[in-house]
Amino acid sequence: MTQKCDDLGEREVVRRITKILGVSEKDDCAMAEDGERYLVWTTDMLHRKADFPGIATPWQIGWMTVAVNLSDVAAMGAVPLGLLVAAGIPPETDMSFVEEIFTGMKDCAHRFDTRVLGGDLDSHNELTLVGTALGWVEKDLALRRRGARPGDLLCTTGTLGSAGAGLRVALGAERKGETKRIEEDASLLALTKRLLEPAPRAKEGRALALSRSVTSMMDNSDGLALSLFDLAEASCVGFSVQEERIPIDPLVAEVAEDREDAVDLALTAGGDFELIFTVTPDRIEDAARACNFTVIGKALEEREIVIESEKVKKALEPRGYQHMSGFSEGKL
Description:
Strand order of the largest sheet: 7-9-6-10-8-11-12
Mean pLDDT: 93
Number of domains: 2
Number of strands: 12
Largest sheet: 7 strands, mixed
CATH architecture of the largest domain: Alpha-Beta Complex
Distance between the termini: 25 Å
CATH class of the largest domain: Alpha Beta
């Protein structure tokens, strides 16, 4: 029987490909030895239809292309060295649109102390942008998805849910033909900016690596729930999440139907580009000196992922961000 990718799902497709290639580790970046350090590489492909709602400006398209790659470098505790970008551009595209895309790339790279070094340009029937980021990290400071141990505290930087809420706002406005409303409402505009202008946690990732307190880490670009399943699989542990400790962005209340919906956005919507990591309890103060974060749970010996509240404890489902068409991208 013929199997199609959308029937198997992203993660099963990735598992089968990594088996063919003989890739044993699935971290945010690939690594190669370079003397006393590792060089780290990551690559992300973005498409006009699947990754950018219609309200996205060309500058925001460029910014996102760089930001998603730098987030992966941050998750390794690494320092970015630079980026390459391959761009497939429809021939009928206005040159001013293209220039704004690359200005957004330049601005994002500059904001995080690196630069776009070059790349490749070709024609394509849909705007397609592929970023490749290179960085480095000392061998004894590299952070991996594996390493969490039962009893470790589960933590996240920043707040969650705003990017998913921003996507809901963007798609709803496009469907109703009310995109002007977003520009006139400061809260809605802020939510869409959280989605389209993500800020990778580059300084936080590096500071946490230098603190030597973190046992495992990744970014949560596909959402907290799916990230926990990835982290648990790599570390061979389970996780318990305290619902009331999840730091939901206050702006989410602008669009969430109720508290349950807000929690669901924080768990499954994705696009926040925060860092999810574990710390041994005796080193939590060292981590706290590195950056601000929230302890949201702990690692378990049992291979289960549960979410607990005052009233109930239930299994967390492996749901997360899916592209607006097709299946979402996954690291090899």
